[in-house]
Amino acid sequence: MKNIIYIDENIPQWKGNLHMHSTRSDGELPYRQIIEAYKQMGYDFCMMSDHDIYWDSDELDTQDFLVLSGTESSTAENPNGLWFISRQSSHWMHFCAIKDPMAAANGQTLKHDEPVPRIVDTGITSWNDQIDYLIKTGHIVVLNHPRWSRISPEHMLALNGCFAMEVWNTISESLETTGESEYEWDYCLRNGKRIFAVAADDSHYLNEKIPDTGAFINVSAPKLDKVSLVDAMKSGNFYASRGPLIKDMRVQDGMLRIKCSPAQCVRLVSYEGFAPTYFAQGAPIEAINWKLEPGLKYVRAEIVDANGLKAWAQPVFLDELNE
Ligand SMILES: [Zn+2]
Ligand SMILES: [Zn+2]
């Protein structure tokens, strides 16, 4: 079995929120204010993902804070009413498109403040066409809030090209109890769809009214620049969280080894067999070591802290270890 390092304790981690809205779309705060707020909350980067309008500016970048370029892209209403029909069955397809500086350098690009073209919604084919367009214009794509979008896990299997999905969306949970999509994630993974998970705020308010902060990804990358961050995301060297930290995660000598911030429990989720859950006994858990079972398809870890908040590690695919 190969040794693979997923999160290396010797490489720095950068905290980011990939999903937020300003008055450029339906957020309540001007973009400067919301970006400043994330800086104050200890984040290292964010993406200004206003609906269907493009951000590509280094205006607010500093040495210790970056604003990634991109958008939250959605399909467009079908003038013949088909989109309305699909809306009756509750599908709202939203994708976070994160500019990949290396890919974007070679192709067609979008410009700052430009409206992002929207493909008319006629169902799954149009959703894939929208993703395709985003990839061709130099982006990596996240499927946003699957449960809020009311798509089925079967729909997700039919989607091509998303490198990640939101396993957690703070405002969808606050407003419509649709923020958590672990079932959908496992459904994809069990059916052979390799997709990473992000946690994001989708913040619109940043006030007492509606809780819309607290989620993040931590990206393990040698330095804070846009190329390094996106490369690390593409490789799965990051994790999603609402609080707990994963300090190190690796497969070494057939063992899955994780070091984390003090946890109440560490759940290993695996298919098609079972993996254990570790509960703190006396002192909180700060490390686990588990002998991988070769017959499993994948295993992923959830770190749960004393407040019940979770971090979600990316899945370990057993066949990658056996190559
Ligand atoms: Zn959305
Ligand atoms: Zn959004």
How would you describe what is shown here?
With about 325 residues, this protein is α+β, with helices and mostly antiparallel strands. Helices cover about 20% and strands about 30% of the residues. It contains nine helices and 19 strands. The chain has helices at about 30-40, 80-90, 100-105, 125-135, 155-160, 170-175, 180-190, 225-235, 320; strands spanning about 5, 15, 45, 65-70, 70-75, 95-100, 140-145, 160-170, 195-200, 215-220, 240, 245-250, 255-265, 265-270, 275-280, 285-290, 300-305, 310, 315. Strands 2, 3, 4, 10, 11, 14, 15, 17, 18 and 19 form a ten-stranded mixed beta sheet that branches. The protein has a five-stranded mixed beta sheet with strand order 5-6-7-8-9. Helix 5 (about 155-160) links the parallel strand 7 (about 140-145) and strand 8. It is globular. The mean pLDDT is about 95.
- Largest sheet composition: 10 strands, mixed
Secondary structure: number of strands: 19
Query: What are the bound molecules?
Result: zinc ion
| Beta-strand percentage range | 25-35%
Order of helices and strands: EEHEEEHEHHEHEHHEEHEEEEEEEEEH
Rounded average pLDDT = 94
**Helical content, roughly?**
10-25%
Number of helical segments? 9
Rg result: 19 Å
- The secondary-structure class comes to alpha+beta
Describe the global form: globular
What is the terminal-to-terminal distance? Answer: 8 Å
Unreliable sequence segments: none
Features:
323 residues, alpha+beta, ten-stranded mixed sheet, 30% strand
Task: Give a quick summary of the entry.
With 323 residues, this protein is an alpha+beta fold. It has helices at 31-40, 82-88, 101-104, 124-136, 153-158, 170-176, 182-190, 226-235, 318-322; strands at 4-7, 13-17, 45-47, 66-68, 70-74, 94-99, 139-143, 162-169, 196-200, 216-220, 238-241, 246-252, 255-263, 265-271, 277-279, 285-291, 298-304, 310-312, 316-317. 44% of the residues are buried.
